[in-house]
Q: What sequence folds into this?
């Protein structure tokens, strides 16, 4: 691993969807998420983090230091136990809270800093903890400070540039499960939601201070994060999501740890506007994206990737 990052960053992700559902809302029949007051589409930070995790898991499969803590099919207790095993405590997840606290005190009496060792193990071995942080229930149960780790990388919700108009599409199901169903039903009707086209904007933050003091998020991790963001839809294709792509990643780098300007001032330099002759956008080329680099304060540089 390389050294922790020494610079603060903010970034803007522009991604679009064509004839797909970027983030269905289970409380609304899986309809694309939207702001009911304005009609603007929404994609949650959790959704985007999941795709970043999936890319890293695939790109770094089997490599030490790039495990994924929050992943499908793997209980969190399994990973928690690995952290406690490193500190000399086995079967921690199955212990009752009082028993776990006693085991921790016993190891501390033997000169082992359990809190530090567990935290170091989890941060060193799991990319998503090092990046986004985590709440680890077994560590909380043991009353360890490392149960709640603040990650240096944070994302906000993505919001569409223009209001979206979700469409409900009726589909026919000809695959019948049983012979009895075939005799009674024949074909069945179903439905799915799509967004004909939408361009979304998401804003994010990278804290060098938290990287240094908490997780050790490194320069190598940062490069992998940019790579994962640019490719987060490339390994996540499905009929439900249609054609999705990250169109541009705009990165603001401060020449110091704490930064030279509030994040909102940097985000305000990024302008995404629909072209004057376009009524209903149906492509990325229907928009103009500009960055007012002349308005950036001294000590802040901008890089555009995509």
A:
């Amino acid at each position: 691993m390389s050294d922790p990052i020494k610079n603060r960053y903010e970034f803007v992700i522009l991604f679009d969807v064509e004839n797909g559902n970027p983030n269905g809302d289970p409380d609304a029949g899986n309809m694309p998420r939207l702001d009911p007051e304005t009609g603007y589409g929404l994609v949650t930070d959790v959704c985007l983090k999941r795709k970043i995790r999936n890319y890293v898991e695939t790109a770094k499969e089997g490599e030490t230091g790039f495990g994924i803590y929050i992943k499908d099919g793997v209980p969190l207790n399994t990973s928690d136990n690995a952290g406690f095993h490193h500190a000399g405590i086995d079967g921690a997840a199955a212990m009752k809270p009082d028993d776990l606290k006693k085991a921790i005190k016993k190891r501390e009496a033997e000169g082992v800093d359990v809190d530090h060792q567990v935290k170091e193990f989890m941060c060193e071995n799991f990319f998503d903890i090092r990046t986004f942080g985590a709440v680890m229930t077994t560590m909380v149960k043991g009353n360890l400070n490392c149960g709640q780790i603040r990650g240096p990388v944070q994302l906000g919700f993505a919001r569409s540039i223009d209001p979206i108009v979700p469409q409900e599409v009726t589909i026919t199901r000809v695959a019948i499960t049983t012979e009895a169903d075939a005799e009674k039903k024949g074909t069945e009707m179903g439905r799915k939601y799509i967004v004909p086209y939408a361009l979304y904007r998401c804003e994010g933050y990278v804290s060098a201070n938290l990287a240094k003091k908490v997780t050790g998020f490194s320069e190598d991790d940062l490069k992998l994060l940019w790579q994962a963001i640019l490719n987060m839809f490339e390994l996540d294709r499905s009929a439900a999501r249609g054609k999705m792509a990250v169109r541009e990643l705009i990165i603001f780098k401060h020449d110091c740890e704490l930064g030279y300007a509030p994040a909102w001032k940097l985000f305000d330099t990024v302008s995404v506007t629909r072209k004057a002759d376009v009524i209903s956008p149906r492509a990325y080329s229907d928009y103009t994206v500009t960055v007012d680099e002349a308005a950036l304060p001294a000590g802040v540089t901008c890089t555009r990737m995509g």
